[in-house]
Amino acid sequence: MKVTCDTCECDMTMTSSYRYFCPECKYEIEMAHIQEVNKKHWDEHKKNIEWVKVKGEEIIIVE
Structure pTM? Predict the structure, then answer.
């Protein structure tokens, strides 16, 4: 799954503590939050999310 920062459009990196982190904007979000959103998306659409954008604590699914 591609995870990008909505503010600066960079690809977020995964840290050793299972978080996605944007080095430029300093946004950080737990991978578990994205997995929860992916599970709900799977239950509704029967497919995994391919790309999300993170804006603070908000997870935006990119179709």
Answer: 0.85
